[in-house]
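Input chain follows. Return structure tokens only.
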Amino acid sequence: MLKLENVTKYYDDFKAVDNLSFTVKPGEIFGLLGVNGAGKTTTFRIIVGLLEATSGKVTWDGKKIDYSLTNEIGFLTEERSLLTKLTVLEQCIFYGTLKGMKKKEIEKRVDELLKKFGIEEYKNKKIKELSKGNQQKIQFITAILNHPKLLILDEPFSGLDPFNVELFKKEIIDMAQKGSMIIFSSHRMEHVELFCKKLVVLMNGKTVLSGYLKEIKEEYRKKTILLKGDFKTSDLQKIKGVEQVIEKPDEWELKIKSNDFISEVFKIVSKTKNVTKFVVEEPSLNEIFIEKVGASYEK
């Protein structure tokens, strides 16, 4: 188990991470979220041992992370970290060797992963000759070459189309099912909701939201009701508990204060003719994030 206890990091007088604590168990996919500058990158670097915390500690199964554990870690950074003049194979051999792998082992693993991601033909191509999406595939491959027990993914879907997002998603879930601890960060809340049952949201280095996603959504009182029928905006706005009415091409979206008003809304709209839809939806993670942080996490 990975455990962060009261981790704080200063850069001179600037506090980048403020008393951060969380745990990630084997098989868990954990979300570490926040706007740019919230302290995520600093936290990642502390976890992998590139930075020392000013106070607090990071342990893996009770032991401080040092060079004896780095071969068990994979890290996909948000920034491109590829050597563009190397071929795909040369790049993978370089990273695999740093992780203590033998050349034959690396080559076998590279062939397996290139096939899995449908880019076998790029094995001997230089990185700079690849598209942005294929470079991201290679970056991901280098992060998982060593079958890491701890994998940190910072914006892993950058530059990928929906088909390749699904390929990555399948691999990430498969790794978790095999026992890897995965820390996942993304600017896309819908991607976070694909994976993460547990998360922390940072703002200015401090935790503003933490816990299991299901419980966070249950505690967030505001709900959305989707309606289809012959309604007028003005009539819907008069209903007690309705905060906002959004007219869409083929339905209405009502934002209500809480679950307490669902029955009131239903009692009134059910009297309307031709009602064909009444669906209560849980809030999206993006909605909750915006309220907590005060800024959209979408780019």
